[in-house]
């Protein structure tokens, strides 16, 4: 596909370089400063001295604060579909769906059950199965949607490579095995397009959401806060406290309490600046250039952002040491100018020019490019439609 279609040398993700913020950037054409998705879920603040928590299964309308390309397509009268996409739960502009947590009573789920592809009990215990099996079922669901419903736009996400890289590290033998398995899932989709006759009017875009780094050490910032008596909810704190939500290569610091916040933030900066493994402490004055919202704009926004050095990653936990050795494995989340965090972009199929090689692009370009292929236009976005692709006549 890369040889025959359009391929970019690299695709730059948005900050933080984790899954949900970048999936959202891919479909909105804006970064987290506008769409406000900073985690793999919605950050909630329980209050009463309790630390914030990230809840994944919250409705899309509560999470995504920017129009999506599937909203635009649906409003134009096109049919939309998603399989295992994220930050999309209960989206009102998705016509057909097979979600990350399938429901045996769902329309596509019932079709797979009727075909003997999966049983209701397997769907009820879906999370307990292997990632490879889940990816196979998600691919079967995408195939079913294409065969029976022929949507104008299908968003499809598979996970085995991400999980494998977390456990064994990128470019490991296990990682290459996962790549081969997922290449075969892409082939299953292409074979479906050929068999159904859809290939003659379908463009396929293959992207990743972020890259990966191997890690040697884990940083536990909440352990340092506990040691300094600054941890939210800890018995040793006085009136003010803070809590850190870790995201691999970055960590988000949230300060709270009735005391002077600027004084607390000064203490937090001092605590983390120069600590082993921490490359830099960013304040809200840096958020615009990082593509992050300010606390005044979003309750998801942190007060400080910590960036890790290579070989180090932030991890949860406050009871042990500040720094521990990491088992073999990898992570992401590092700032988006890190060469290791760059993603892939390949476009192939009807209306896609042959043999075009792009330099580095932004994943903010994906949504307006998809819109252009559908004969639509996304306005007020930070990305732009890739002209080598959209300046061609294609049918929907």
Strand and helix layout:
Layout: E1 6-12, H1 19-28, H2 32-35, E2 42-44, E3 53-55, H3 60-63, H4 69-75, E4 80-83, E5 96-98, H5 107-114, H6 120-124, H7 131-149, E6 153-156, H8 160-168, H9 173-196, E7 203-207, E8 213-219, H10 221-227, E9 241-247, E10 250-256, H11 261-272, E11 278-283, H12 287-290, E12 304-308, E13 311-314, E14 323-325, E15 330-331, E16 345-349, E17 356-362, H13 366-373, H14 387-390
Helix pairs in contact: 5-7, 7-9, 8-9
- Structural class comes to alpha/beta
Number of strands: 17
Side-by-side strand order of the widest sheet = 7-16-1-17
What share of residues is helical? 25-40%
Shape: globular
Low-confidence stretches: none
Distance between the termini: 20 Å
Largest sheet: 4 strands, mixed
Tell me what portion of residues adopts beta-strand conformation: 15-25%
Q: What Rg do the Cα atoms give?
A: 22 Å
Number of helices: 14
Summarize the structure.
The protein has 14 helices and 17 strands. With about 400 residues, the chain is of the alpha/beta class. It is globular.
Describe what this molecule looks like in 3D:
With 396 residues, the protein is of the alpha/beta class. 32% of the residues lie in helices and 21% in strands. The protein is built from 14 helices and 17 strands. It has helices at residues 19-28, 32-35, 60-63, 69-75, 107-114, 120-124, 131-149, 160-168, 173-196, 221-227, 261-272, 287-290, 366-373, 387-390; strands at residues 6-12, 42-44, 53-55, 80-83, 96-98, 153-156, 203-207, 213-219, 241-247, 250-256, 278-283, 304-308, 311-314, 323-325, 330-331, 345-349, 356-362. A 4-stranded mixed beta sheet has the order 7-16-1-17, with no helix packed on it. Strands 8, 13, 14 and 15 form a 4-stranded mixed beta sheet that branches. A 4-stranded antiparallel beta sheet has the order 9-10-12-11, covered by helices on one side. A hairpin with an 8-residue loop joins strand 2 and strand 3. Helix 5 (107-114) crosses helix 7. The protein is globular, with a radius of gyration of 22 Å. The two termini are 20 Å apart. The relative contact order is 0.19.
């Amino acid at each position: 596909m890369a040889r025959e279609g359009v391929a970019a040398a690299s695709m730059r993700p948005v900050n933080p370089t984790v899954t949900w913020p970048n999936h959202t950037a891919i479909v909105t054409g804006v970064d987290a400063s506008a769409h406000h998705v900073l985690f793999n879920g919605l950050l909630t603040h329980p209050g009463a001295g309790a630390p914030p928590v990230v809840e994944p299964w919250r409705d899309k309308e509560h999470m995504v604060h920017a129009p999506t390309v599937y909203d635009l397509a649906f409003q134009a009268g096109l049919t939309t579909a998603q399989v295992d996409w994220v930050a999309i739960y209960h989206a009102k502009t998705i016509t057909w769906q097979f979600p990350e947590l399938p429901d045996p009573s769902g329309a596509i789920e019932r079709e797979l059950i009727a075909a003997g592809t999966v049983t209701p009990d397997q769907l009820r215990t879906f999370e307990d199965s292997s990632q490879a099996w889940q990816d196979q079922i998600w691919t079967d669901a995408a195939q079913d949607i294409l065969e029976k419903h022929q949507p104008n736009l299908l968003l499809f996400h598979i996970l085995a490579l991400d999980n494998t890289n977390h456990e064994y590290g990128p470019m490991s033998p296990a990682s290459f095995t996962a790549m081969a398995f997922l290449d075969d899932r892409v082939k299953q989709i292409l074979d479906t397009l050929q068999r159904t006759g859809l290939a003659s009017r379908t463009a396929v875009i293959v992207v990743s959401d972020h890259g990966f780094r191997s890690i040697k050490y884990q940083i536990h910032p909440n352990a340092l806060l506990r040691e300094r008596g600054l941890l939210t909810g800890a018995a040793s704190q006085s009136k003010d406290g803070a809590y850190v939500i870790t995201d691999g290569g970055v960590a988000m610091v949230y300060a709270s309490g009735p005391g002077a916040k600027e004084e607390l933030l000064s203490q937090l900066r001092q605590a983390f600046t120069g600590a082993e493994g921490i490359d830099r402490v960013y304040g809200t004055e840096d958020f615009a250039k990082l593509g992050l919202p300010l606390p005044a704009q979003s309750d998801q926004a942190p007060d400080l952002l910590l960036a890790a050095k290579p070989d180090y990653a932030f991890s949860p936990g406050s009871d042990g040491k500040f720094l521990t050795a990491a088992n073999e494995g990898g992570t992401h989340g590092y700032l988006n100018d890190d060469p290791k965090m760059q993603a892939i972009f390949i476009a192939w199929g009807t209306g896609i020019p042959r043999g075009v090689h792009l330099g580095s692009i932004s994943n903010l370009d994906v949504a307006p490019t998809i819109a252009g292929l559908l004969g639509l236009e996304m306005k007020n976005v930070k990305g732009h439609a890739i002209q080598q692709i959209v300046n061609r006549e294609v049918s929907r």
